[in-house]
């Protein structure tokens, strides 16, 4: 535990941190990658270039300083980050590197004096210990599962199927032919790649898209215009190629009983974790109402429509509603969607006004905020709204 003086000193730096903004974390990352370039093999350098990771770290530092005397408030964020860290295989010694550069950054930007640096050193040490202990538990749990493993494990691509103009699914089976660990519907895989021509190893997390079967894993990847990894997977990856995977992880997953009504809300590739949830509900013969609400730009980019229909037909109380923002004349003629324009949940109030219904959201942050605001307007408590951000976490 931290003493009162250390807490007071750290909290006294909050105005300075807030005034500096993400410039603080930009200096930190530039310094760290300059002194420890080997960490470029772990960090997503695309998120460095677009600033998302720097913003996320700055927000985390400010949140820690603000709540330093009440770490319980931070535990949900700690769990989310710890789960992500395990897909990067972060180790305890790397926390020492990060801590050293954080303190050096504070010193170089502010020259705050030894008392402040010592206080932040103690505070960082406590937080690092929380992460190290939690990540050790996750690593141990993953290794102990039937079909589990430590570190990364070799897999081969056994199926590659275009699902729309933008989304392709990939199925991986272990190279050793042994079973693979189960996971919670909504969790993701850590995919490790360094093909020829990549300057650094790249690690990405992709949601698993079906109920676990103990034999293989399936993900779906959207082609991004500037996406180095997604472009390689779409353009170059072939059936038979070998890559390495970290064990399934993630704090966003469906956890309901057979009597719990569920609404799955997604846009674009955000439907991927929802597919695993829907598959799980269907194979478990879920008796309570299940809603599938999905938004796509138009029919050419709408993936997995047939699969959703097949799964929905297995549920006794299933309702699907699909919105196309800019449907083509062909889509209109074939009635491939239910509504045109943006997702309107208010119009479907009768389907979602059950008091114990759980809501799961995934898609672009702006879409999730838009959907969540509608749910709150309809009287849904925040505690029943669960969501996942692809990339660095953002607050809804």
Automatic annotation (TrEMBL):
Residues covered by the Globin domain: 1-136
Q: Where is this site: Influences the redox potential of the prosthetic heme and FAD groups?
A: 84, 388
Where is heme b annotated to bind? 85
Residues that bind FAD: 188, 204-207, 389-392
Quote the record's cofactor note.
Answer: Binds 1 heme b (iron(II)-protoporphyrin IX) group per subunit.
Enzyme class, spelled out: oxidoreductase
Domain FAD-binding FR-type: from-to ranges:
150-255
Catalyzed chemical reaction(s):
2 nitric oxide + NADPH + 2 O2 = 2 nitrate + NADP(+) + H(+); 2 nitric oxide + NADH + 2 O2 = 2 nitrate + NAD(+) + H(+)
SUPFAM superfamilies assigned to the protein according to its UniProt record, in alphabetical order: Ferredoxin reductase-like, C-terminal NADP-linked domain, Globin-like, Riboflavin synthase domain-like
Stretches for region Reductase: 147-396
Question: What protein is this chain from?
Answer: Flavohemoprotein
Q: Which organism is it from?
A: Buttiauxella ferragutiae ATCC 51602
């Amino acid at each position: 535990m931290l003493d009162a003086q250390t807490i007071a000193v750290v909290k006294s730096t909050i105005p300075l941190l807030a005034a500096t903004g993400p410039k603080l974390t930009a200096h930190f990352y530039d310094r760290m990658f300059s002194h420890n370039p080997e960490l470029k093999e772990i960090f997503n350098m695309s998120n460095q270039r677009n600033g998302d990771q720097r913003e996320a770290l700055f927000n985390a530092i400010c949140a820690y300083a603000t709540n330093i005397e009440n770490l319980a408030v931070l535990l949900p964020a700690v769990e989310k980050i710890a789960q992500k860290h395990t897909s990067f295989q972060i180790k305890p010694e790397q926390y020492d590197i990060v801590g050293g550069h954080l303190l050096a950054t504070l010193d170089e930007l502010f020259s705050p004096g030894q008392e402040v640096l010592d206080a932040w050193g103690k505070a960082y040490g406590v937080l690092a210990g929380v992460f190290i202990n939690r990540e050790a538990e996750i690593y141990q749990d993953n290794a102990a599962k039937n079909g589990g493993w430590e570190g990364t494990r070799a897999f081969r691509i056994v199926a590659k199927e275009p699902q729309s103009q933008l989304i392709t699914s990939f199925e991986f089976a272990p190279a050793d032919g042994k079973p693979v660990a189960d996971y919670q519907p909504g969790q993701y895989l850590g995919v490790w790649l360094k093909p020829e021509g990549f300057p650094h190893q790249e690690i990405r997390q992709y949601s698993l898209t079906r109920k676990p079967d103990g034999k293989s894993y399936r993900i779906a990847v959207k082609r991004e215009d500037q996406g180095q990894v997604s472009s390689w997977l779409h353009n170059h990856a072939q059936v038979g190629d070998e890559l390495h995977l970290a064990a399934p992880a993630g704090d966003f997953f469906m956890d309901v009983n057979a009597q719990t009504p569920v609404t799955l809300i997604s846009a674009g590739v955000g439907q991927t974790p929802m597919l695993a949830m829907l598959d799980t509900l269907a194979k478990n013969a879920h008796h309570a109402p299940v809603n599938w609400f999905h938004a796509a730009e138009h029919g050419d980019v709408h993936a997995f429509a047939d699969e959703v229909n097949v799964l929905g037909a297995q549920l006794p109380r299933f309702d699907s509603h699909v919105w196309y923002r800019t449907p083509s004349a062909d889509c209109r003629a074939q009635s491939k969607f239910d509504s045109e324009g943006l997702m309107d949940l208010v119009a479907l109030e009768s389907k979602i006004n059950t008091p114990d219904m759980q809501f799961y959201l995934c898609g672009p942050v702006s879409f999730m905020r838009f959907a969540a605001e509608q749910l709150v307007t309809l009287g849904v408590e925040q505690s029943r709204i669960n969501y996942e951000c692809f990339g660095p976490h953002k607050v809804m």
